[in-house]
Amino acid sequence: MRHWLSMGDYDPAELAALVRDACALKSGRSSAQDAIGDRILTMVFFNPSLRTRTSFESAMLRFGGHAICLNVGGDAWKLEHRDGVVMDGDFAEHVREASPVLSRYGDLLAVRTFARLHDAREDAQDAVIRSFAQYATVPLINMESAVEHPCQGLADWMTVQEKLGDPRGKRFVLSWAPHVKPLPMAVPHSAILAAAGAGMHVTIAHPPGYDLNAGVLDRVSAWCADAGTQVDVTTEQRAVCRDADVLYVKSWGATQHYNDAPAQTESFARHSDWTVGTDHLGRNALLMHCLPVRRNVVITDAALDDTRCVVVDQAENRLWTQAAIIQRLLNG
C-alpha cells in the first residue's frame, strides 16, 4: 500500500506521469470514474481550508465518489498523536485508534495539519501526518503538513506545463515575501520540489535568516543535478526575478523568530520592500501563488490583476491533480 505524503517518496518520472494523468482528466480524454466511483474519502482537518476541502470534495463527486469532512476540535474530538502521553487534558482520542477506525469507514484517508512553528526540528519530523500513516490501513493523502504540501506542488507543476509547455530548462524563481504573521514552509518546499522534478533551474530568493529545510534543499539539489539544471539561493530578490520564466511568491516565517512574535513582526516590516509588484515580472513570466494571498502585503493589486498572474489556474488544477492522485492510489 502506498501513501501520498511527500513528493520525495516518488521519483520525478512518477510525478510527471501523474501530471499527464491530470491533464488527461481535465481535457476529458480520460475519466477516473472506474477508480473513484462509489469510493469514500475521509478528510481530517486540523486547520482551516477553502481550496483543499472544496477541490477534494469536487474530485470525488465529479467521478462518482463521496467525501466526508471532519474538523478536529470542531465536529470531531481533539486528537493526540504523541505516544506514551497521559491523556488527562483536552485531547479525547488518540491517532492510534482514530486512524484505523476512519480507515475502516472509507477507502482513502486524508489529513491536513500545519507546522506548530515552535521548534524547527520538531516540525521537520512531521509527526502528526506520520502518525496517521503509521496506523492507517488505507492509502493516506497529505493535504498539507508541517513540511510539505505535495498536492499544491503537483498542481503547480501542471500549471507551469500548461502555460509554458515542456518545463525542462526553464527558470523557476521562488521569492519570499513579507506577511502579517509567520507561516509554515510547506508550500515553498513543495514548490521547489515540483520545479526541480520538472527539470527546471531553481532559484530561491529570501532575506538572511529565512533558510528553508536543509533536507528538502538536498533533495532539490539532487533532482536538479539529475536533470542537468542548477539550484541557487540568494538574498538579492530583484536581481533574479525579472529573469524568471516562473516567479512563485510565498511568505514563510524565520526559524530564528519561532516563539518571538514581536521579532518576526519587526522582520516583516524591515523587509517590506520584498512585496512583489509588476516591476518584478519579466515580459513573459508567470506569476504564481498558492492562495490565499494578502493583497498589497505579499503581492500588489496590479500584479495579481495582471494577465501574467495564473493563481486561479493553479487553484483549479488542484482538482485535477488530486483526482489523478486518488485514482493512482485506488488503483494500487
What layout of secondary structure does this protein have?
Elements lengths: L11 H16 L5 H4 L3 E6 L5 H12 L3 E6 L7 E2 L12 E2 H11 L2 E5 L7 H5 L2 H9 L4 E3 L7 H15 L6 E6 L9 H12 L3 E5 L8 H14 L3 E4 L3 H4 L4 E5 L10 H10 L15 E3 L12 H4 L6 H20 L2
Q: Could you walk me through the main structural features you see in this protein, from its secondary elements to its overall organization?
A:
Helix 7 (150-164) crosses helix 8 (186-197). This protein is globular. A 5-stranded parallel beta sheet has the order 9-8-7-10-11. A 4-stranded parallel beta sheet has the order 2-1-5-6, sandwiched between helices. A two-stranded parallel sheet has the order 3-4. The protein has helices at 12-27, 33-36, 51-62, 95-105, 120-124, 127-135, 150-164, 186-197, 214-227, 238-241, 261-270, 301-304, 311-330, and strands spanning 40-45, 66-71, 79-80, 93-94, 108-112, 140-142, 171-176, 201-205, 231-234, 246-250, 286-288. It folds into 2 domains: 7-148 and 318-330, Rossmann fold, CATH 3.40.50.1370; 152-314, 3-Layer(aba) Sandwich (Rossmann fold), CATH 3.40.50. It has 332 residues and is of the alpha/beta class.
CATH architecture descriptor text of the largest domain = 3-Layer(aba) Sandwich
Q: Assign the CATH topology of the largest domain.
A: Rossmann fold
CATH class wording of the largest domain? Alpha Beta
- Spans of at least 5 consecutive residues whose pLDDT stays below 50 are none
Largest sheet: 5 strands, parallel
What count of domains describes the coordinates?
Answer: 2
Strands, total number: 11
Beta content: 5-15%
Termini Cα gap: 7 Å
CATH superfamily label of the largest domain: Aspartate/ornithine carbamoyltransferase
Instruction: State the shape.
Output: globular
Q: How much helical structure, as a percent, in the residues? A: 40-55%
Major sheet strand order: 9-8-7-10-11
SSE-based structural type: alpha/beta
Count of DSSP H/I helices? 13
Question: What is the radius of gyration?
Answer: 19 Å
H/E element string? HHEHEEEHEHHEHEHEHEHEHEHH
Mean pLDDT: 97
